Amino acid sequence: MDIVTSVRDLRERLQREPDNVFVPTMGNLHAGHIQLMRLAKHRAACTVVSIFVNRIQFGPKEDFERYPRTLQADAEMMEDVGVDVVFAPTEAEIYPEPQTFVVEPSDLQHILEGAFRPGHFRGVATVVLKLFNMVSPHTAIFGKKDYQQYVVLRDMVKQLALPVEIIPAETVRAEDGLALSSRNAYLTPAERTEAARLYRILQEVRAALLAGRRDYSRLEAEALARFNEKWAADYVAIRRQSDLQPPSPSDRNLVVLGAARLGRPRLIDNVEVSL
Question: 182-274: which CATH topology?
Fold first, then answer.
Protein backbone atom coordinates (compact mmCIF):
# COMPACT_ATOMS: atom_id res chain seq x y z
CA MET A 1 0.00 0.00 0.00
CA ASP A 2 1.33 3.41 -1.01
CA ILE A 3 0.48 6.59 0.91
CA VAL A 4 0.88 9.77 -1.13
CA THR A 5 0.24 13.34 -0.06
CA SER A 6 0.60 15.40 -3.24
CA VAL A 7 -1.46 15.53 -6.41
CA ARG A 8 1.72 15.20 -8.44
CA ASP A 9 2.75 11.99 -6.68
CA LEU A 10 -0.79 10.65 -6.87
CA ARG A 11 -0.98 11.12 -10.63
CA GLU A 12 2.46 9.63 -11.12
CA ARG A 13 1.51 6.59 -9.03
CA LEU A 14 -1.80 6.12 -10.86
CA GLN A 15 -0.19 6.25 -14.31
CA ARG A 16 0.57 2.58 -13.67
CA GLU A 17 -3.08 1.91 -12.74
CA PRO A 18 -5.48 2.69 -15.61
CA ASP A 19 -8.22 0.70 -13.86
CA ASN A 20 -9.04 2.22 -10.47
CA VAL A 21 -12.03 2.55 -8.16
CA PHE A 22 -12.24 5.36 -5.61
CA VAL A 23 -13.56 5.63 -2.04
CA PRO A 24 -13.47 9.23 -0.73
CA THR A 25 -13.48 9.53 3.09
CA MET A 26 -12.67 12.02 5.83
CA GLY A 27 -10.80 9.35 7.76
CA ASN A 28 -11.43 8.15 11.33
CA LEU A 29 -12.42 4.92 9.65
CA HIS A 30 -14.94 2.38 10.94
CA ALA A 31 -16.49 -0.84 9.66
CA GLY A 32 -18.78 1.08 7.33
CA HIS A 33 -15.83 2.58 5.49
CA ILE A 34 -14.09 -0.79 5.38
CA GLN A 35 -17.16 -2.32 3.74
CA LEU A 36 -16.95 0.32 0.98
CA MET A 37 -13.32 -0.64 0.41
CA ARG A 38 -14.17 -4.34 0.26
CA LEU A 39 -16.78 -3.57 -2.39
CA ALA A 40 -14.18 -1.54 -4.27
CA LYS A 41 -11.71 -4.43 -4.27
CA HIS A 42 -14.15 -6.44 -6.41
CA ARG A 43 -14.55 -3.69 -9.03
CA ALA A 44 -11.05 -2.76 -10.17
CA ALA A 45 -7.41 -3.73 -10.12
CA CYS A 46 -6.52 -0.69 -8.02
CA THR A 47 -8.42 0.64 -4.99
CA VAL A 48 -7.78 4.30 -4.11
CA VAL A 49 -8.94 5.84 -0.83
CA SER A 50 -8.68 9.51 0.09
CA ILE A 51 -8.38 10.78 3.65
CA PHE A 52 -9.23 14.47 3.78
CA VAL A 53 -11.29 16.54 6.22
CA ASN A 54 -12.87 19.10 3.93
CA ARG A 55 -13.21 22.48 5.61
CA ILE A 56 -15.61 23.98 3.06
CA GLN A 57 -18.38 21.48 3.79
CA PHE A 58 -18.45 22.39 7.49
CA GLY A 59 -20.57 25.21 8.87
CA PRO A 60 -19.05 27.89 11.13
CA LYS A 61 -20.35 26.22 14.32
CA GLU A 62 -19.69 22.63 13.27
CA ASP A 63 -16.90 20.28 14.30
CA PHE A 64 -14.19 20.85 11.68
CA GLU A 65 -11.43 21.58 14.21
CA ARG A 66 -12.26 18.67 16.50
CA TYR A 67 -13.12 16.12 13.82
CA PRO A 68 -10.90 13.09 14.63
CA ARG A 69 -7.76 12.77 12.51
CA THR A 70 -6.42 9.22 12.92
CA LEU A 71 -4.28 8.56 9.86
CA GLN A 72 -1.96 6.01 11.47
CA ALA A 73 -4.81 3.83 12.72
CA ASP A 74 -6.68 4.35 9.44
CA ALA A 75 -3.63 3.22 7.45
CA GLU A 76 -3.44 -0.03 9.40
CA MET A 77 -7.11 -0.76 8.68
CA MET A 78 -6.70 0.05 4.99
CA GLU A 79 -3.62 -2.13 4.65
CA ASP A 80 -5.51 -5.04 6.23
CA VAL A 81 -8.31 -4.74 3.67
CA GLY A 82 -5.88 -4.46 0.76
CA VAL A 83 -6.16 -0.83 -0.35
CA ASP A 84 -3.56 -0.03 -3.00
CA VAL A 85 -3.21 3.76 -2.84
CA VAL A 86 -4.05 6.18 -0.03
CA PHE A 87 -4.25 9.85 -0.90
CA ALA A 88 -3.82 11.88 2.30
CA PRO A 89 -3.29 15.50 1.21
CA THR A 90 -2.94 18.59 3.33
CA GLU A 91 -5.50 21.36 3.05
CA ALA A 92 -2.97 23.46 1.11
CA GLU A 93 -2.62 20.65 -1.44
CA ILE A 94 -6.34 20.54 -2.15
CA TYR A 95 -6.86 24.30 -1.86
CA PRO A 96 -3.57 25.99 -2.84
CA GLU A 97 -5.53 29.21 -3.33
CA PRO A 98 -9.00 30.36 -2.22
CA GLN A 99 -11.63 28.19 -3.89
CA THR A 100 -13.58 30.82 -5.83
CA PHE A 101 -14.88 28.35 -8.42
CA VAL A 102 -17.40 26.01 -6.80
CA VAL A 103 -19.99 23.44 -7.80
CA GLU A 104 -23.46 24.81 -7.12
CA PRO A 105 -25.87 21.87 -6.81
CA SER A 106 -29.55 22.09 -7.71
CA ASP A 107 -32.27 23.18 -5.28
CA LEU A 108 -31.77 19.75 -3.72
CA GLN A 109 -28.98 21.35 -1.70
CA HIS A 110 -31.49 23.51 0.20
CA ILE A 111 -33.86 20.83 1.56
CA LEU A 112 -33.53 18.26 4.35
CA GLU A 113 -29.85 18.31 5.38
CA GLY A 114 -29.27 21.40 3.27
CA ALA A 115 -31.87 23.37 5.24
CA PHE A 116 -29.94 22.72 8.46
CA ARG A 117 -26.42 22.88 6.99
CA PRO A 118 -26.36 25.76 4.47
CA GLY A 119 -23.51 25.42 1.99
CA HIS A 120 -22.75 21.84 3.01
CA PHE A 121 -23.52 20.21 -0.33
CA ARG A 122 -21.74 22.97 -2.26
CA GLY A 123 -18.62 22.08 -0.28
CA VAL A 124 -19.11 18.34 -0.77
CA ALA A 125 -19.72 18.59 -4.52
CA THR A 126 -16.76 20.92 -5.03
CA VAL A 127 -14.23 18.75 -3.23
CA VAL A 128 -15.52 15.52 -4.78
CA LEU A 129 -15.23 17.00 -8.27
CA LYS A 130 -11.66 18.06 -7.48
CA LEU A 131 -10.85 14.60 -6.14
CA PHE A 132 -12.36 12.96 -9.23
CA ASN A 133 -10.10 15.13 -11.39
CA MET A 134 -7.07 14.12 -9.31
CA VAL A 135 -7.79 10.38 -9.10
CA SER A 136 -9.54 9.83 -12.48
CA PRO A 137 -11.49 6.78 -11.30
CA HIS A 138 -13.96 4.88 -13.45
CA THR A 139 -16.05 4.09 -10.36
CA ALA A 140 -16.61 5.74 -6.99
CA ILE A 141 -18.43 4.19 -4.03
CA PHE A 142 -20.50 6.12 -1.50
CA GLY A 143 -22.48 4.82 1.48
CA LYS A 144 -26.25 5.24 1.55
CA LYS A 145 -26.19 6.51 5.13
CA ASP A 146 -25.55 9.96 3.63
CA TYR A 147 -28.45 9.45 1.23
CA GLN A 148 -28.84 13.06 0.13
CA GLN A 149 -25.11 13.32 -0.51
CA TYR A 150 -25.32 10.24 -2.74
CA VAL A 151 -28.20 11.76 -4.74
CA VAL A 152 -26.40 15.11 -5.12
CA LEU A 153 -23.21 13.45 -6.35
CA ARG A 154 -25.06 11.03 -8.63
CA ASP A 155 -26.81 13.99 -10.26
CA MET A 156 -23.58 15.99 -10.49
CA VAL A 157 -21.87 13.17 -12.37
CA LYS A 158 -24.82 12.79 -14.73
CA GLN A 159 -25.32 16.48 -15.49
CA LEU A 160 -21.62 17.29 -15.88
CA ALA A 161 -21.05 14.17 -18.01
CA LEU A 162 -18.26 12.89 -15.79
CA PRO A 163 -16.82 9.51 -16.80
CA VAL A 164 -17.42 8.06 -13.32
CA GLU A 165 -19.96 5.47 -12.24
CA ILE A 166 -21.42 6.19 -8.79
CA ILE A 167 -22.13 3.03 -6.79
CA PRO A 168 -24.28 3.31 -3.64
CA ALA A 169 -23.46 0.93 -0.80
CA GLU A 170 -25.84 -0.24 1.92
CA THR A 171 -25.54 1.28 5.39
CA VAL A 172 -23.53 -0.76 7.89
CA ARG A 173 -25.15 -0.92 11.31
CA ALA A 174 -24.35 -1.96 14.86
CA GLU A 175 -26.30 -4.86 16.36
CA ASP A 176 -28.96 -2.49 17.74
CA GLY A 177 -29.43 -0.85 14.34
CA LEU A 178 -27.46 2.35 14.84
CA ALA A 179 -25.86 3.41 11.57
CA LEU A 180 -22.07 3.45 11.93
CA SER A 181 -20.58 6.95 11.83
CA SER A 182 -17.33 8.56 12.89
CA ARG A 183 -19.36 11.03 14.95
CA ASN A 184 -20.81 8.20 17.07
CA ALA A 185 -17.57 8.49 19.06
CA TYR A 186 -18.96 11.73 20.51
CA LEU A 187 -21.80 9.82 22.24
CA THR A 188 -21.61 9.13 25.96
CA PRO A 189 -22.38 5.52 27.02
CA ALA A 190 -25.94 6.49 27.97
CA GLU A 191 -26.42 8.36 24.71
CA ARG A 192 -25.04 5.44 22.75
CA THR A 193 -27.76 3.19 24.21
CA GLU A 194 -30.41 5.76 23.37
CA ALA A 195 -29.08 6.45 19.86
CA ALA A 196 -30.71 3.39 18.27
CA ARG A 197 -34.10 5.07 18.76
CA LEU A 198 -33.61 7.01 15.51
CA TYR A 199 -33.41 3.84 13.44
CA ARG A 200 -36.36 2.27 15.29
CA ILE A 201 -38.52 5.32 14.54
CA LEU A 202 -37.64 5.21 10.84
CA GLN A 203 -38.39 1.49 10.77
CA GLU A 204 -41.81 2.15 12.32
CA VAL A 205 -42.60 4.63 9.54
CA ARG A 206 -41.43 2.09 6.97
CA ALA A 207 -43.72 -0.56 8.49
CA ALA A 208 -46.69 1.83 8.38
CA LEU A 209 -46.05 2.55 4.70
CA LEU A 210 -45.82 -1.15 3.91
CA ALA A 211 -49.11 -1.64 5.79
CA GLY A 212 -50.79 0.75 3.38
CA ARG A 213 -50.72 4.17 5.00
CA ARG A 214 -50.27 7.10 2.61
CA ASP A 215 -50.94 10.05 4.94
CA TYR A 216 -47.33 11.11 4.67
CA SER A 217 -47.48 14.37 6.63
CA ARG A 218 -49.25 12.71 9.54
CA LEU A 219 -46.77 9.83 9.57
CA GLU A 220 -43.90 12.33 9.70
CA ALA A 221 -45.51 14.24 12.58
CA GLU A 222 -46.16 11.02 14.52
CA ALA A 223 -42.55 9.99 14.04
CA LEU A 224 -41.24 13.29 15.39
CA ALA A 225 -43.45 12.86 18.46
CA ARG A 226 -41.71 9.55 19.26
CA PHE A 227 -38.45 11.27 20.14
CA ASN A 228 -38.14 11.83 23.88
CA GLU A 229 -36.78 14.84 25.74
CA LYS A 230 -33.19 13.68 25.27
CA TRP A 231 -33.39 14.49 21.56
CA ALA A 232 -33.66 17.65 19.49
CA ALA A 233 -35.20 16.32 16.27
CA ASP A 234 -34.71 18.25 13.03
CA TYR A 235 -36.90 16.24 10.68
CA VAL A 236 -38.40 12.93 9.68
CA ALA A 237 -39.31 13.04 5.99
CA ILE A 238 -40.84 10.60 3.52
CA ARG A 239 -39.48 11.27 0.03
CA ARG A 240 -39.08 9.71 -3.40
CA GLN A 241 -35.81 7.84 -3.76
CA SER A 242 -35.19 9.31 -7.21
CA ASP A 243 -35.10 13.02 -6.36
CA LEU A 244 -35.97 13.40 -2.63
CA GLN A 245 -39.14 15.29 -3.44
CA PRO A 246 -42.42 14.68 -1.55
CA PRO A 247 -44.14 11.61 -3.01
CA SER A 248 -47.55 11.26 -4.56
CA PRO A 249 -49.81 8.36 -3.48
CA SER A 250 -48.79 6.48 -6.64
CA ASP A 251 -45.03 6.60 -5.98
CA ARG A 252 -43.61 3.21 -5.04
CA ASN A 253 -39.89 3.70 -4.33
CA LEU A 254 -39.58 5.85 -1.22
CA VAL A 255 -37.02 6.64 1.45
CA VAL A 256 -37.66 7.71 5.04
CA LEU A 257 -34.98 10.11 6.25
CA GLY A 258 -34.37 11.46 9.74
CA ALA A 259 -31.97 13.74 11.56
CA ALA A 260 -31.79 14.61 15.23
CA ARG A 261 -29.29 15.85 17.77
CA LEU A 262 -28.56 13.65 20.78
CA GLY A 263 -26.28 15.47 23.18
CA ARG A 264 -23.23 16.66 21.30
CA PRO A 265 -23.54 14.79 17.98
CA ARG A 266 -26.17 15.16 15.30
CA LEU A 267 -27.23 11.81 13.91
CA ILE A 268 -28.72 11.10 10.47
CA ASP A 269 -30.19 7.90 9.05
CA ASN A 270 -32.60 6.60 6.45
CA VAL A 271 -34.44 3.46 5.35
CA GLU A 272 -35.63 2.69 1.83
CA VAL A 273 -39.16 1.43 1.15
CA SER A 274 -40.40 -0.31 -1.99
CA LEU A 275 -44.20 -0.51 -2.02
Answer: Pantoate--beta-alanine Ligase; Chain: A,domain 2 (3.30.1300)
